[in-house]
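wait is this the right file?? whatever heres the structure
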């Protein structure tokens, strides 16, 4: 069987991953729990999300497959959700789905479609409710759900079930360590202690198999990206390509006492949210895209340090692109783009603007400047002979009628560029994960 859970956290505290880690430990009384719970990030542009828009899934082989045992498990999980969910938050609307027996196989394909849509598209509560109504009718005593408040969490709960049932996708891993409950920020606990030097060691020991542990782009000192700043239970998280890599990195970390930890299987760092858009006119709000175009205007830095520029596709459509201040040194690359540069862009589309996650410069335009010509004899720079009188060399007495056009060296080159690690979205694929073929394609 499997359990899908979503939307128990809030902006003020709690974390659905903690509830999943807790359940993965305590549900061992009911059966054998899979090694890695699933942590699936959904569409990052959805406005209803609390923080990271993650849904959690747990797979179990039951000791007792009777209906009574199943209902006991559902009751146990429901009580835990009620105990730990931050129901005081307006955005927190928990949902959980339980799938047993024959439904486990029969719903594989439709749930996979639901999973893919929840990562790339907009899914409404009514769609999740209709899916469950049909499934519970077709598979009586094999599909159950619980919801609280408006039940928006049912969307993620169904989506993560689709991920668990269809594991044929680019999977990464995250090790998450949790604080002692007495130290949670919402309980007035102390500031997190995670030694930055130990995180640097963890990064140097395991990179490129792990990533986004430290942001070295910060001007003052290395910034620990993997340590959150809010009131939630997470102490730190290490992301990587394998469970071995994240566990190896975690062993390097010096921190305050850890209550529990868990390695999750996840779709983070995969670009699963990106949709290929041939034309900018195909772009819809609250979706994320991969597209290409030609720069049509130089970047303008607006109030707040954000950089805005425009590109044009092959169909004559224009698209405004933005590199926001938190993206760090990435903005310096954007400021070097000039009209005529051909680029590939990745980002989320909102307010008629593509918020950039990374770009690839495909071709650089040539830029020239007019300068006083060199003397054809001695090679030295000539001087103006007066208004409308051309240029002359004092030494050789040579004369040239007009200025020379000289190619300006570009400060950027063809290739991929990405935002700083501290500004990266959970789903955005870091360049460190790209294969050689992906980097040159």
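ok assuming it is, sequence goes like this
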């Amino acid at each position: 069987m499997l359990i899908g859970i979503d939307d128990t956290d809030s902006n003020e505290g709690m974390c659905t991953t903690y509830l999943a880690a807790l359940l993965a430990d305590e549900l061992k009384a009911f059966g054998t729990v899979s090694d890695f719970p699933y942590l699936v990030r959904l569409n990052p542009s959805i406005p209803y999300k609390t923080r990271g828009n993650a849904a959690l899934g747990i797979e179990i082989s039951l000791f007792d497959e009777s209906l009574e045992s199943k209902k006991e498990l559902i009751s146990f999980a429901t009580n835990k959700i009620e105990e730990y969910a931050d129901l005081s938050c307006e955005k927190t609307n928990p949902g959980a789905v339980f799938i047993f027996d024959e439904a486990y196989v029969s719903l594989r394909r439709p749930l996979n479609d639901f999973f893919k849509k929840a990562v790339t598209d907009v899914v409404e509560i009514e769609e999740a409710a209709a899916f469950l109504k049909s499934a519970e009718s077709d598979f009586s005593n094999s599909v159950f759900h619980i919801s609280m408040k408006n039940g928006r969490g049912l969307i993620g709960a169904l989506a993560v079930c689709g991920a668990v049932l269809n594991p044929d996708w680019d999977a990464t891993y995250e090790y998450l360590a949790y604080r002692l409950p007495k130290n949670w920020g919402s309980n007035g606990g102390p500031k997190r202690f995670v030694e930055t030097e130990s995180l640097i060691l963890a990064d140097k020991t395991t990179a490129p198999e792990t990533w986004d542990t430290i942001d070295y782009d910060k001007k003052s000192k290395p910034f620990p990206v993997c340590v959150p700043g809010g009131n939630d239970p997470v102490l730190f998280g290490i992301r990587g390509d394998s469970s071995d890599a994240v566990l190896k990195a975690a062993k390097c970390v010096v921190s305050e006492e850890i209550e529990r930890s868990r390695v999750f299987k996840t779709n983070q760092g995969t670009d699963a949210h990106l949709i290929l858009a041939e034309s900018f006119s195909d772009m819809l709000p609250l979706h994320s895209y991969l597209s290409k175009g030609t720069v049509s205007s130089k970047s303008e830095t607006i109030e707040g340090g954000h950089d805005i520029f425009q590109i044009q596709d092959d169909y004559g459509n224009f698209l405004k692109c933005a590199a926001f201040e938190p993206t760090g040194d990435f903005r310096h690359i954007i400021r070097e783009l000039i009209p005529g540069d051909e680029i590939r862009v990745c980002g989320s589309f909102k307010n008629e603007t593509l918020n950039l996650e990374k770009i690839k410069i495909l071709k650089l335009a040539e830029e020239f400047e007019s300068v006083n010509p060199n003397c054809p004899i001695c090679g030295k720079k000539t001087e103006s002979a007066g208004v409308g009188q051309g240029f002359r060399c004092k030494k050789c007495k040579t004369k040239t009628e007009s200025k020379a056009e000289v190619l300006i060296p570009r400060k950027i080159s063809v290739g991929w560029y990405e935002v700083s690690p501290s500004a990266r979205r959970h789903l955005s694929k870091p360049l460190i994960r790209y294969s050689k073929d992906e980097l040159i394609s």
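The first helix runs from residue 16 to 26. so i think its the right one actually
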